[in-house]
Amino acid sequence: MPRPEPVDVVKARRDAALDALVGYVPYIKFLGVHFDRRGDELTAVLPYAEAHIGNAALPAIHGGVTASFLEIAAIVHLNWSLSWDQIEQGAEMSKPRLPKTIDFTIDYLRSGLPRDAYARARVIRAGRRYASVHVEGWQDNRDRLFAQATAHFLLPDPQGRDAG
Amino acid sequence: MAERDQAQHDALVGKTLASMPYARALSMTMDHLGGGQAQMTMPYSEDLIGDPDTGVVHGGAVSALLDTCAGAAVLCHPQVKAATATLNLRIDYMRPATPGQSITAEATCYHVTRSVAFIRATAVDADSDRPVATATGAFTLQQTAMG
Asked: I want to staple B77 with a disulfide (CB 3.0 to 4.6 A). Which of B22, B38, B45, B109 is the partner?
Protein backbone atom coordinates (compact mmCIF):
# COMPACT_ATOMS: atom_id res chain seq x y z
CA MET A 1 0.00 0.00 0.00
CA PRO A 2 1.42 3.43 -0.88
CA ARG A 3 2.35 5.66 2.06
CA PRO A 4 -0.31 8.29 2.81
CA GLU A 5 0.60 11.77 1.60
CA PRO A 6 2.04 14.13 4.25
CA VAL A 7 -0.74 16.16 5.85
CA ASP A 8 0.71 19.52 4.89
CA VAL A 9 0.85 18.48 1.22
CA VAL A 10 -2.81 17.43 1.32
CA LYS A 11 -3.88 20.64 3.07
CA ALA A 12 -1.87 22.88 0.77
CA ARG A 13 -3.37 21.24 -2.30
CA ARG A 14 -6.96 21.53 -1.04
CA ASP A 15 -6.51 25.10 0.18
CA ALA A 16 -4.97 26.15 -3.14
CA ALA A 17 -7.87 24.58 -5.05
CA LEU A 18 -10.40 26.37 -2.82
CA ASP A 19 -8.56 29.69 -3.09
CA ALA A 20 -8.59 29.35 -6.87
CA LEU A 21 -12.38 28.79 -6.89
CA VAL A 22 -13.15 31.64 -4.51
CA GLY A 23 -10.53 34.18 -5.61
CA TYR A 24 -11.72 33.88 -9.19
CA VAL A 25 -15.00 35.75 -8.62
CA PRO A 26 -14.91 39.54 -8.06
CA TYR A 27 -18.38 39.69 -6.42
CA ILE A 28 -17.28 37.23 -3.70
CA LYS A 29 -14.42 39.60 -2.86
CA PHE A 30 -16.73 42.64 -3.05
CA LEU A 31 -19.06 41.11 -0.46
CA GLY A 32 -16.10 39.94 1.66
CA VAL A 33 -17.13 36.26 1.79
CA HIS A 34 -14.51 33.65 2.68
CA PHE A 35 -14.65 29.91 3.35
CA ASP A 36 -13.60 27.73 6.29
CA ARG A 37 -12.64 24.21 5.25
CA ARG A 38 -12.60 21.00 7.30
CA GLY A 39 -11.69 18.18 4.95
CA ASP A 40 -14.24 18.55 2.18
CA GLU A 41 -16.76 20.42 4.38
CA LEU A 42 -17.07 24.12 3.62
CA THR A 43 -18.59 26.87 5.72
CA ALA A 44 -19.10 30.20 4.00
CA VAL A 45 -18.43 33.18 6.28
CA LEU A 46 -19.83 36.68 5.72
CA PRO A 47 -18.07 39.10 8.09
CA TYR A 48 -20.36 41.94 9.08
CA ALA A 49 -19.80 45.23 7.31
CA GLU A 50 -21.79 48.47 7.61
CA ALA A 51 -22.25 48.52 3.84
CA HIS A 52 -24.40 45.35 4.18
CA ILE A 53 -27.19 47.12 6.04
CA GLY A 54 -30.59 47.44 4.39
CA ASN A 55 -32.86 48.71 7.14
CA ALA A 56 -30.82 51.26 9.10
CA ALA A 57 -33.53 51.70 11.76
CA LEU A 58 -33.43 48.09 13.06
CA PRO A 59 -30.58 47.71 11.88
CA ALA A 60 -30.77 44.61 9.67
CA ILE A 61 -28.70 43.12 6.88
CA HIS A 62 -30.11 43.83 3.40
CA GLY A 63 -32.11 40.90 2.00
CA GLY A 64 -30.05 41.21 -1.16
CA VAL A 65 -26.86 40.68 0.84
CA THR A 66 -28.32 37.53 2.38
CA ALA A 67 -29.46 36.28 -1.03
CA SER A 68 -26.05 37.01 -2.55
CA PHE A 69 -24.29 35.28 0.33
CA LEU A 70 -26.39 32.11 0.07
CA GLU A 71 -26.07 32.01 -3.72
CA ILE A 72 -22.27 32.35 -3.43
CA ALA A 73 -22.20 29.59 -0.78
CA ALA A 74 -24.28 27.33 -3.05
CA ILE A 75 -22.22 27.88 -6.24
CA VAL A 76 -18.83 27.53 -4.53
CA HIS A 77 -19.95 24.40 -2.69
CA LEU A 78 -21.34 22.87 -5.88
CA ASN A 79 -18.20 23.64 -7.85
CA TRP A 80 -16.05 22.37 -4.99
CA SER A 81 -17.90 19.07 -4.77
CA LEU A 82 -17.79 18.61 -8.55
CA SER A 83 -14.03 19.27 -8.55
CA TRP A 84 -13.21 17.18 -5.46
CA ASP A 85 -12.08 14.00 -7.24
CA GLN A 86 -9.92 16.04 -9.60
CA ILE A 87 -8.37 17.90 -6.65
CA GLU A 88 -7.67 14.66 -4.80
CA GLN A 89 -5.99 13.12 -7.83
CA GLY A 90 -3.64 16.07 -7.76
CA ALA A 91 -4.69 16.96 -11.30
CA GLU A 92 -3.69 20.34 -12.67
CA MET A 93 -6.78 22.48 -11.97
CA SER A 94 -8.14 24.02 -15.11
CA LYS A 95 -9.78 27.45 -15.02
CA PRO A 96 -13.07 27.14 -13.12
CA ARG A 97 -16.07 26.64 -15.37
CA LEU A 98 -18.96 27.92 -13.33
CA PRO A 99 -22.40 26.36 -13.05
CA LYS A 100 -25.14 28.76 -14.22
CA THR A 101 -27.97 29.57 -11.82
CA ILE A 102 -31.35 28.64 -13.31
CA ASP A 103 -33.46 29.69 -10.34
CA PHE A 104 -32.96 30.65 -6.75
CA THR A 105 -35.66 30.58 -4.05
CA ILE A 106 -34.94 32.10 -0.68
CA ASP A 107 -36.91 32.06 2.58
CA TYR A 108 -36.17 34.78 5.08
CA LEU A 109 -36.76 33.29 8.51
CA ARG A 110 -35.41 36.00 10.81
CA SER A 111 -34.00 39.43 10.23
CA GLY A 112 -30.26 39.43 9.61
CA LEU A 113 -28.54 40.93 12.63
CA PRO A 114 -25.55 43.26 12.31
CA ARG A 115 -22.99 40.53 12.93
CA ASP A 116 -21.18 37.74 11.06
CA ALA A 117 -23.23 35.16 9.15
CA TYR A 118 -22.44 31.59 8.14
CA ALA A 119 -23.78 29.26 5.49
CA ARG A 120 -23.43 25.64 4.50
CA ALA A 121 -24.75 24.09 1.32
CA ARG A 122 -25.68 20.53 0.39
CA VAL A 123 -25.93 19.12 -3.10
CA ILE A 124 -29.30 17.37 -3.08
CA ARG A 125 -28.77 15.97 -6.55
CA ALA A 126 -26.26 16.54 -9.31
CA GLY A 127 -26.88 14.81 -12.61
CA ARG A 128 -25.10 15.33 -15.91
CA ARG A 129 -26.84 18.60 -16.77
CA TYR A 130 -28.63 19.89 -13.67
CA ALA A 131 -27.98 20.17 -9.98
CA SER A 132 -30.26 21.00 -7.06
CA VAL A 133 -28.57 22.60 -4.07
CA HIS A 134 -29.95 23.53 -0.65
CA VAL A 135 -28.21 26.11 1.52
CA GLU A 136 -28.75 27.17 5.13
CA GLY A 137 -27.65 30.45 6.69
CA TRP A 138 -27.34 31.24 10.39
CA GLN A 139 -25.72 33.75 12.71
CA ASP A 140 -25.37 33.06 16.43
CA ASN A 141 -26.96 29.62 16.67
CA ARG A 142 -26.55 26.86 14.13
CA ASP A 143 -30.11 25.65 14.83
CA ARG A 144 -31.72 29.06 14.41
CA LEU A 145 -31.49 29.70 10.67
CA PHE A 146 -32.02 33.27 9.50
CA ALA A 147 -32.42 32.22 5.87
CA GLN A 148 -32.46 29.14 3.67
CA ALA A 149 -32.52 28.73 -0.08
CA THR A 150 -32.87 26.15 -2.83
CA ALA A 151 -31.22 26.68 -6.18
CA HIS A 152 -31.07 24.84 -9.48
CA PHE A 153 -27.96 25.05 -11.60
CA LEU A 154 -27.05 24.19 -15.17
CA LEU A 155 -23.74 22.33 -15.03
CA PRO A 156 -20.87 23.14 -17.38
CA ASP A 157 -20.74 20.90 -20.43
CA PRO A 158 -18.32 18.07 -19.58
CA GLN A 159 -17.24 17.96 -23.25
CA GLY A 160 -15.74 21.39 -22.78
CA ARG A 161 -13.55 20.23 -19.90
CA ASP A 162 -9.82 19.77 -20.17
CA ALA A 163 -8.97 16.10 -20.56
CA GLY A 164 -6.57 16.13 -17.55
CA MET B 1 -54.29 59.23 2.38
CA ALA B 2 -54.79 62.35 0.30
CA GLU B 3 -53.13 62.35 -3.10
CA ARG B 4 -50.56 64.94 -2.10
CA ASP B 5 -49.74 63.07 1.11
CA GLN B 6 -49.32 59.86 -0.89
CA ALA B 7 -46.90 61.62 -3.22
CA GLN B 8 -44.92 62.90 -0.25
CA HIS B 9 -44.96 59.43 1.30
CA ASP B 10 -43.70 57.88 -1.96
CA ALA B 11 -40.94 60.46 -2.26
CA LEU B 12 -39.82 59.61 1.28
CA VAL B 13 -39.92 55.87 0.53
CA GLY B 14 -37.83 56.42 -2.59
CA LYS B 15 -35.29 58.47 -0.70
CA THR B 16 -35.11 56.02 2.21
CA LEU B 17 -34.63 52.98 -0.03
CA ALA B 18 -32.02 54.54 -2.28
CA SER B 19 -30.08 55.65 0.82
CA MET B 20 -29.84 52.15 2.31
CA PRO B 21 -26.14 51.33 2.68
CA TYR B 22 -26.29 48.26 0.44
CA ALA B 23 -28.37 50.04 -2.22
CA ARG B 24 -25.68 52.74 -2.23
CA ALA B 25 -22.90 50.13 -2.35
CA LEU B 26 -24.42 48.88 -5.61
CA SER B 27 -25.17 52.48 -6.81
CA MET B 28 -28.89 51.72 -7.21
CA THR B 29 -31.11 54.61 -8.20
CA MET B 30 -34.89 54.97 -7.95
CA ASP B 31 -36.31 55.84 -11.39
CA HIS B 32 -39.99 55.76 -10.60
CA LEU B 33 -42.21 54.96 -7.63
CA GLY B 34 -45.97 55.08 -7.04
CA GLY B 35 -49.22 53.15 -6.93
CA GLY B 36 -47.60 49.87 -5.96
CA GLN B 37 -45.07 50.01 -8.79
CA ALA B 38 -41.37 50.79 -8.70
CA GLN B 39 -38.48 50.97 -11.13
CA MET B 40 -34.82 50.95 -10.08
CA THR B 41 -31.54 50.85 -12.00
CA MET B 42 -28.16 49.41 -11.07
CA PRO B 43 -25.16 50.40 -13.20
CA TYR B 44 -22.63 47.85 -14.41
CA SER B 45 -19.55 47.54 -12.22
CA GLU B 46 -16.55 45.22 -12.32
CA ASP B 47 -17.04 44.62 -8.57
CA LEU B 48 -20.29 42.80 -9.36
CA ILE B 49 -18.86 40.30 -11.84
CA GLY B 50 -19.75 36.69 -11.12
CA ASP B 51 -17.90 35.07 -14.02
CA PRO B 52 -14.65 36.82 -15.01
CA ASP B 53 -14.48 34.74 -18.19
CA THR B 54 -17.51 36.55 -19.57
CA GLY B 55 -17.77 39.66 -17.35
CA VAL B 56 -21.38 38.79 -16.52
CA VAL B 57 -22.80 40.26 -13.29
CA HIS B 58 -23.32 37.79 -10.40
CA GLY B 59 -26.89 36.59 -9.87
CA GLY B 60 -26.66 37.76 -6.25
CA ALA B 61 -26.36 41.39 -7.34
CA VAL B 62 -29.42 41.00 -9.59
CA SER B 63 -31.26 39.45 -6.61
CA ALA B 64 -30.34 42.45 -4.46
CA LEU B 65 -31.76 44.85 -7.07
CA LEU B 66 -34.98 42.82 -7.49
CA ASP B 67 -35.45 42.54 -3.71
CA THR B 68 -34.98 46.28 -3.19
CA CYS B 69 -37.26 47.21 -6.07
CA ALA B 70 -39.93 44.76 -4.86
CA GLY B 71 -39.75 46.24 -1.36
CA ALA B 72 -40.23 49.71 -2.88
CA ALA B 73 -43.31 48.52 -4.79
CA VAL B 74 -44.81 47.19 -1.55
CA LEU B 75 -44.14 50.38 0.40
CA CYS B 76 -45.75 52.62 -2.22
CA HIS B 77 -48.90 50.48 -2.52
CA PRO B 78 -51.84 52.71 -1.52
CA GLN B 79 -53.15 50.19 1.03
CA VAL B 80 -49.82 49.70 2.77
CA LYS B 81 -49.25 51.72 5.93
CA ALA B 82 -46.67 49.50 7.54
CA ALA B 83 -43.04 48.51 7.52
CA THR B 84 -42.15 45.54 5.34
CA ALA B 85 -39.58 42.77 5.08
CA THR B 86 -39.04 40.06 2.48
CA LEU B 87 -40.64 36.74 3.43
CA ASN B 88 -39.57 34.86 0.33
CA LEU B 89 -38.35 35.54 -3.16
CA ARG B 90 -38.01 33.24 -6.14
CA ILE B 91 -35.77 34.44 -8.92
CA ASP B 92 -35.57 32.85 -12.38
CA TYR B 93 -32.49 33.70 -14.39
CA MET B 94 -33.49 33.73 -18.06
CA ARG B 95 -30.19 34.82 -19.59
CA PRO B 96 -26.90 36.45 -18.58
CA ALA B 97 -27.05 40.26 -18.47
CA THR B 98 -24.90 41.82 -21.18
CA PRO B 99 -21.60 42.99 -19.64
CA GLY B 100 -21.22 46.76 -19.54
CA GLN B 101 -24.97 47.47 -19.53
CA SER B 102 -26.91 48.68 -16.51
CA ILE B 103 -29.76 46.53 -15.21
CA THR B 104 -33.23 47.93 -14.63
CA ALA B 105 -35.82 46.26 -12.41
CA GLU B 106 -39.56 46.87 -12.48
CA ALA B 107 -41.68 45.55 -9.64
CA THR B 108 -45.42 45.44 -9.06
CA CYS B 109 -47.12 44.83 -5.76
CA TYR B 110 -50.24 43.16 -7.20
CA HIS B 111 -52.06 42.10 -4.05
CA VAL B 112 -52.04 42.94 -0.37
CA THR B 113 -53.77 41.38 2.61
CA ARG B 114 -53.61 42.63 6.19
CA SER B 115 -50.31 40.86 6.78
CA VAL B 116 -48.81 39.89 3.41
CA ALA B 117 -47.97 41.70 0.17
CA PHE B 118 -47.41 39.80 -3.08
CA ILE B 119 -45.04 41.03 -5.77
CA ARG B 120 -43.72 40.19 -9.19
CA ALA B 121 -40.70 41.80 -10.80
CA THR B 122 -38.66 41.75 -13.99
CA ALA B 123 -35.05 42.75 -14.65
CA VAL B 124 -33.81 43.80 -18.08
CA ASP B 125 -30.66 45.26 -19.62
CA ALA B 126 -30.54 47.46 -22.75
CA ASP B 127 -32.46 44.78 -24.69
CA SER B 128 -35.67 45.32 -22.74
CA ASP B 129 -37.68 42.81 -24.80
CA ARG B 130 -35.77 39.86 -23.38
CA PRO B 131 -35.80 39.77 -19.56
CA VAL B 132 -32.60 38.89 -17.74
CA ALA B 133 -34.51 37.65 -14.70
CA THR B 134 -37.98 37.56 -13.23
CA ALA B 135 -39.03 37.25 -9.61
CA THR B 136 -42.08 36.56 -7.52
CA GLY B 137 -42.28 36.91 -3.80
CA ALA B 138 -44.15 37.67 -0.61
CA PHE B 139 -43.41 40.45 1.86
CA THR B 140 -44.48 40.82 5.47
CA LEU B 141 -46.56 43.79 6.53
CA GLN B 142 -45.72 44.63 10.11
CA GLN B 143 -48.47 46.90 11.39
CA THR B 144 -46.70 49.57 13.39
CA ALA B 145 -49.25 49.26 16.23
CA MET B 146 -48.00 45.73 16.84
CA GLY B 147 -44.48 47.07 17.40
From this structure: B109
